[in-house]
């Protein structure tokens, strides 16, 4: 993944197409090792030996309806190779192309030497509120669909699965019209639920995952706001059936940071004594272009907190992560042209940003240091609309690339989005933002240039 689209390679750089990547860049339109956009939304992860399998919703039809549960394979969590589809539609069943299959999660059942997939199974209008199960003898299957039903006769919508160290596993799900959240034990085969071990009444949670750390269970989930992001929360308990703590924010309380990084939890993968937060940034009008937002989830403070990282890497053997540092350039220090103006707010770095970009306005940031290779550059911007904006970015007067700028939740609320640029070696690069477009771009606070590409 993280490969430049072929078109951009042709027009803006002489990069080697689809070379192996080494860093995780949240929010980029990730590509697989064949150069296709990764279609694995609502992720589930499974580690088998030293190989990771990523299951998810293939939304390449930009529809909520079922196309496939994809299966990708990687040994480094960065370069992913698509395998055969793990689950495909079956006509005249609850997994036909007119139904919904979401949030696939796979676990290995030692008793039967079998892989078991659980997913949210629903009708096109989300009225059935069921779980579905499918099984296979290999990680990517293809899986054989068993059935869909309401666990213990109650509604189940967003769900996750937690497998405890002793192999007893649990369905985590939003029930009772998304009002109550339930944790229900699976049978020894992982084919059915047996007993409800805990109900959190009235918590309105979605998108759940559990990480166990030092004998404490940490439940991570979002609230319900449709496809729009809301701040993810965590809860803790010493027993799944015990009393869970009150909710807390998974990312720092900062109204200037878009919805705690503007994504919804999908899966939380343990990494050493920490974890990796794996979320979706849903793009509702073009669902297949929804982005993957993965960040380190650190327990350094004793509780799980998302670590903001534009560019970062994992050392799987050591169980550690490294957040890249870059060089920051303020947009207000650039040269404005056309209608571009200075916008002031304490939310902006240096107290200022450049507004009215696009539609005749642009800004050129000069004397940017480059290393002569492809480099990640993060644009820190605010977009107070309720829909995506986008902006052109060009280097040294070259061809422009278009970067999507999701709505951030307010005109003074910042988000960063990545773009890979090829800068010349030395501190002589000019980066122009917002030129040659008829639509307004987001207000640009600053850019951070990373040495990694
Ligand atoms: C695993 O641990 C849970 C929680 O203590 C317990 O309820 C369950 O019976 C255990 N399962 C096995 C297979 O020992
Ligand atoms: C799950 O178990 C319940 C209770 O025994 C049973 O009524 C239901 O049919 C089972 N569902 C499946 C899918 O096996
Ligand atoms: C950029 O945004 C404008 C206005 O919303 C839209 O018309 C255009 O299609 C977008 N371009 C891209 C490449 O997303």
UniProtKB/TrEMBL annotation:
CDD domains: CBM35_galactosidase-like, GH43_Pc3Gal43A-like. Residues 1-19 form the signal peptide. Pfam families: CBM13-like, Glyco_hydro_43. Residues 327-450 form the CBM6 domain. Keywords: Glycosidase, Hydrolase, Signal. GO terms for biological process: carbohydrate metabolic process. SUPFAM superfamilies: Arabinanase/levansucrase/invertase (SSF75005), Galactose-binding domain-like (SSF49785). One of its GO terms (molecular function) is carbohydrate binding. Belongs to the glycosyl hydrolase 43 family. This is Carbohydrate-binding module family 35 protein. It comes from Athelia psychrophila.
